[in-house]
Amino acid sequence: MSESLFLGLDVGTSGVKALLVGADGEVVGAATAPLTMETPRVGWAEQDPEAWWAASVAALREVLGDGRAARVAGIGISGQMHSSVFLDRAGEVIRPALLWCDGRTTAECREITQSVGGEERLRDLASNPALEGFTLPKVLWLRNHEPEAFERLATVLLAKDYVRYRLTGALATEPSDASATLMYDTAGLRWSEEIMSAVGLPMSILPDVGGSSEVLGRVTADAAALTGLPAGTPVVGGGADNACGAAGVGAVSPGEAVASWGTSGTVLAPIAQPLVDPGLRAHTFCHVAPGVWYLMGVVLSAGAAFAWHRDQLALDALSAGDASLRLNDEAATIAPGADGVTFLPYLQGERTPHRDASARGAFIGLSLAHTRAHLTRAVLEGVCFALRDSVSILQQLEVAPDHLLLTGGGARSPFVRKLQADVYGLPVATVNREEGPAYGAALLAAVGAGAYPDLAAAAQATLTRSAMEQPDPAAHRAYQAPYARFRAAYPVLKTLLTS
Q1: Are 243 and 440 in contact (CB under 8 A)?
Q2: Residues designated catalytic
Q3: What's the whole-number average pLDDT of the chain?
Q4: Are residues 227 and 314 in the same domain?
Q5: 156, 191, 212, 391 from 203: Cα distances, Å
């Protein structure tokens, strides 16, 4: 195994990333192929699964140069959660996929809740409420609004499982993604016949479920010709992007917690039993480590909110090189609280804690004295405040972390790392790998190939942590009033939007 390479493939919203990792954990190659998201209407979000496959092929061909392909001993795939791929009996895509941030299915969520006998019963069956982003409401939307397309439906897959299908021909998934569909018994680790029967869907549309580090297929000759991978290369179950992202920083055991900034933002804490938030503000899903679950709060627009601000309001920074770095430097000149400017990052609705697909973003408190630097500071603080809501829920559920591991965009900037420590009032640390879910997927491939006995051993052998960055007590105190202002703003904005 010393010469073997393990490939992690992450099917994200903004791109597909391919990562080659050696048995010692060193990254020996990386490539990313971009993706775009379509928003045909306000609140809608779609992508063409064929675009995922084309981007996967492009990233794989780029990363497998210099004779590396022959050394690949296993492949793990990560991907955006919930996003629904509808296949017909021939395995062809019926329509563009409805994404995790798509908010069109409010009526279908009510339909599901009523069909199973109320929210408490749904919580017992799936450990989660019906939310617009989940997969099951999307299937019912297809039935309700595109009946001709629904008549062709034979299989529902998640994003990474569609790429596995194209690589191997296998229709399969694993628990971390299955538990985020609302069709899975998260505590019992099986598809829920009761839910499917209640909503009138056949079990036959669901793929087989295997383990996250279990080999669920092998690269076909056709896929090998397209990608450069050796035919027969094993492909393990992999996992949902948030679970693989946690694995990629070593958060695979109870007692850990990780805050991640991607397009969305999450706070995730592994747990030994499937604990459910009584208020259903946080999600309970299966981890990629066997016998482990996790609680997670989700902010739908984290990195996406910052990218929107950068792209719409900082055109001069975009033309001057590293726009994000320049904006962070500007924000660092502004005092905590952004001199009274508050930003709500609800640009595509919100999950935790509001469960409101119709929520929208806002700047509040603007004056002629405020500059772009104030707005940038407010955007970054707004994302941190939204994630602090999730930290607070974990604390209320007595899953209180004593520190947070940081990953994604919020881990790369020293200013944003310090901002998070001060807002949360918790020490924060990073790890020596910044590759996110793709790295966790590669570790799962290594476990599946026998390089490590389990995921915990793989993480221990390949990851090291930075020294803890401590919060500034005075800064944390200074954030109490701005955070209270942030929390008070949503109910007022909701009243305005619904009046």
Answers
A1: yes
A2: 241
A3: 94
A4: no
A5: 10, 8, 21, 36
